[in-house]
Each structure stands twice: as C-alpha cells, then as structure tokens.
Amino acid sequence: MSGQNTVETRRRRGVPEGLWARCPGCQATIFRKEARRLLETCPECNYHWTLSAPERIAQTLDDGTFEEWDANLTTADPLDFFDRKSYKERIQNEMNSTGLREAVVTGCGRIRARKVAIGVLDSRFIMGSMGSVVGEKIVRLVERAGEQKLPLIIFSASGGARMHEGIISLMQMPKTSAAIAKFRSAGGLFISVLTNPTMGGVTASYASLGDVVFAEPGALIGFAGPRTITATIHAELPPGFQSSEFQLSHGFVDRIVKRQDMKTELARAVDYCRK
Fold it and tell me: Domain 50-274 adopts which CATH fold?
C-alpha cells in the first residue's frame, strides 16, 4: 500500500494525522503524545529523537528564565560559495525553514534556580555546522560566562565544520578551544553535553573540553563517520563504534544521561563542582 493510500485510509477511519509515529530505533508504532510526555523519547526502547534548539532550551531551563544573547548575528559569504545554489541563498532558506538566524542559540537562564550560561546547537540548520558566526557566538558566550561567573553548558549537535566557509570555519576550532582554555584557567565550570550527532570539528574542539562531559543515549560521537573510516582503513569496526555507550566505555564521556534526567543531573553537576 502506498503512503498516500495509507493516509487516505487513516482519514476514512477517522484517525488524525500526527497521532502516531514509527520509532527509528525499534520500529514500534508510538503514540506521539506519550513520546512528547517523555521529552521526545521512545517509551519502548528509549530512542532519543532530535530536538530543535528552542525545544532543548524549553526542556532544560526553568520556564521564562531564558535571555538570548547575540541573536542578530548572521554570516557573510567570504568565499562566494556556490554548490547548486549560492551560500547566501542556502542561509536564507535555512532561516526561513528553522526560524533561526544561525545554527546555535546562546544566552543565559536558570536550571532549578541556578543561573547558567547556555548554548545549544540546532542540527536543522546546515546540520549544526560550525562556521564563523557559530564560532563567534560560542566565544562570546564563553567570555560572558567568565565575566558573570556563570557555569557554562553547551549542547552540541553538529556534523562538524562548515565547508561553505573553508579555512574560516576551521579557524573556529582553535578559536573556541582557546576561549574554553581561558575560561577554565580562570576557574570556570564547563559542562559539555554531546547529542546525536556530534562529529567533525565540533568534537575535535570545544565539545571535548568539558570539565564534565555528558552524552545522550545512542548519540553518534566522533570525528570522521563510521562509513568514512571503514572505507579508509578497510577494516570492520567494533559493534556500536562511536556511539555514546562506546565512548563511555573508552573514557571519552563521563556519563550517559537520559533526556528525562538531564535537567536534574545538570543542576547536580553545577552544585557538586561548586563545592
């Protein structure tokens, strides 16, 4: 039966669209309202659906406490990049489809009444890739966290550096890493949260530098992807290679935290590290 016929059958039976969803993890048919109640996770297998930056902020911070920083920063087109469409056109399309001006949202807010500086990457915007504006917003976030003596939390969800900006995007790796190093040397607390996926230049820079590194279950975390590595070294990779569970077993992350527990665990980490 075609997808169109399935939709028409459901309409005839009086089943509203969007009432059910198929879990990509276990293939179970999930009641969407139940998945939303569980913060967009599967009640059967705990698969974590991708969240937008606004959704992540709403789940993580206390209601009404978020104050956005540097909301109006937008990228230029330093290379006059063109690949089927211009980079400027691509950026405009991403703005229109996501409602964001870039792939990261930064600001401050409260988690269980504890004030924090927070950054959240959004993989809907050119796969959360890090270009000049993403790097600049992260650096400004880190600097303000230092000035205001706030714990810093960054949720990463990225395919890596943004090829449309060439070497300028790669420059954001040392730029953000240096900002984190300065912040930590001054006694700042940085909690890095790795979500699915966290790859490439983001993993190879600030995302790996947390004093505490959390990861969501089942997240893909690494530099090059498994298919690229397999094609390069011509060897079979271990089961679950580059999953957050694999990274935990090899000491790359400190703890895997379910989405329903994330807010509580972040507040606990802030309290513990302040002692």
Answer: 2-enoyl-CoA Hydratase; Chain A, domain 1 (3.90.226)
